[in-house]
Amino acid sequence: MVDSNNCGNASISLYSGGSYYFVYVQTASESNLYYQDGTFYCTDAPGYSCRSLYSLTNAEVVWNCGGNTFKKNQDASNANFRIVEAFKIYPNPTTDKVFIDLPDEAIYQINLIDISGKIMKQMETEPYTTNVEINISDLTKGMYLVEMSNETSNTIQKLIIE
User: Fold this and answer.
1) Do 29 and 69 fall into the same domain?
2) What CA–CA distance (Å, rounded) separates 65 from 55?
3) What are the helix and strand counts (H, E) for the chain?
4) Cis peptide before 93 (omega within 30 of 0)
5) What is the Cα gyration radius of the chain?
6) Cβ-proximal residues to 96 (8 Å cutoff; 6+ apart), any chain
7) Distance between CA atoms of residues 1 and 10, nearest Å
8) Domain interval for residue 131
9) Neighbours of 116 (CB within 10 A)
10) Considering the domain boundaries, does residue 1 fall inside one?
11) pLDDT per position in the chain (162 positions), as tens?
């Protein structure tokens, strides 16, 4: 969706569509709308807006890129997020469990966040841990964010549960 090495002037917006959510990704070259499970919906074109087509107004959360870092809008927290491949999540998509390969042996806080922003699972790794297994069989199908943070960084990646 967004270049992991240089997010440029990209923004990611989360819109409520009643009982489901849409993710709107806007980059310098295109703007795309995705359903909450990551399924592509449409691309904006001259005179054609995906958000207008689905009557999406007033994003619940917006992350804007600046200096290769995504930052939540002022109404949310002032935490910074950098979208990188610093840790590996697999299998993705998954159904009952997910594994995370950590980039180093530091202590990490790991949050599994649903598309509405609610923390569904939370854990802290032990020192010198390089791989974590998380049981997700109790979660509903859809798109989630895996947020991993320590004293110096805060990274997120998308996870699809089928």
Assistant:
1) yes
2) 25
3) 1, 14
4) yes
5) 16
6) 135, 136, 137
7) 10
8) 88-161
9) 14
10) no
11) 555 455 666 778 878 776 677 888 887 778 888 776 667 778 888 888 888 877 888 887 777 765 444 554 444 333 344 333 357 889 989 999 999 988 778 888 999 988 778 899 999 999 888 899 999 999 999 889 888 888 776 777 889 999
CA dihedral 92, 96, 101, 107 (to 10 degrees): 130
Q: Identify the domain boundary among 37, 60, 80.
A: 80
CATH of residue 137's domain is 2.60.40.3080
What's the longest Cα–Cα distance across the chain? 54
Q: Is the domain of 69 the same as that of 105?
A: no
Number of structural domains in the chain = 2
Peptide bond just before 127 cis, omega within 30 deg: no
> Hey, what amino acid is at 136?
I
